[in-house]
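Cross-check.
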Amino acid sequence: MILLKRLLQFISWPITAGVIIALLALLLFPQLRGNNAPKPDEQKHTLGVVSYADAVSRAAPAVVNVYTEKRVVQRYQNLYNNPLYRQLYDKSNTPQQERMQNTLGSGVIVDAQGHILTNKHVVNGADKIFVLLYDGRGASAELIGTDPQNDLAVLKITTENLTPITIGDSNNTRVGDVVLAIGNPFGVGQSVSQGIVSATGRWNLGINSAENFIQTDAAINPGNSGGALIDAYGNLVGINTAMLDETGASVGISFAVPAEKAMNSLRQIVEYGEVRRGWLGLAINSLTNDQIKEMGVNGLVVTEIESKSPAEDAGFQKGDIITHIDGVALIDAPSLINSIRNIQPNAEITFRVVRNGESQELKAIAGFPPTKT
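Predicted model, tokenized:
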């Protein structure tokens, strides 16, 4: 009996120790329990980003609704508005009616001083501009200036406790990056749509004269103009400007002015009241693939040189192939146009050109664009 008791005591210690070790293992390593599903807070780390709520919460307070009023005069005559009868009326004798025309759009607060970026077409010709902030406060806005070539406008409000947006690096925006469009589509109130960057450097669309758009499939509708295009972290990468409009609604092809370009315009408007751009007096064109193979060089060919222009003074000739500006290789026409548009008047620029198969440098001093009469 004593022997049996001692035997049980001898066996119970390893069993007890084994149970204790097993319990500790289950507590320290819950995956051993058989349920390997991560907890909600762990999913963010195991499955990648599953929500852009943090990005939106960072950027949304900086996006405002822009309302404008414009006094317009139109001739009042029912038949006059019918194209079949319009030629019968003497316009000077047609009664006139004055009315207020309302427009809506969006804008982005970019600094604590109350400067707001929006589109020029949103505020064009407005007699009154009113801004509604994210927190429900309203304020009258002053138009500081516009950049027609980029369809941009700068407003200012004198309101305290503003939350400006964080400016992102639009120069490094890549095709495939996730982006979010924040604005006031159709006047329904602040809304967010999500997509990806479909293309960068998009130009030759006929929208404005300084095109270098970020193309996205994030839904941008009427009222989104001037709103924010942000990255997945809530940083501003573009100002929503236009959409491909074949149906009157978004079809997944929309365009935004890169934030770097928009901020450059804003800084000049605030400082000078206008955007100052260098002028060279050059007309250029891209080389075809066959020309690139034949010449063994990639660049832009000079097709026209304006008389008494900085380009003429620098010694440019038709047929010159521009390959570098200030040591930076050119890839396509937009890169040349954007390089020149970022040059201030009176700045000296060094061009590397290929002429008759030989490379040489030309130095030009940018001027102010000639005034059109």
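Helices lie at 2-28, 40-46, 53-59, 120-123, 259-272, 289-295, 310-314, 333-341. DSSP finds eight helices and 20 strands in the chain. Passed to J.P. for a second look.
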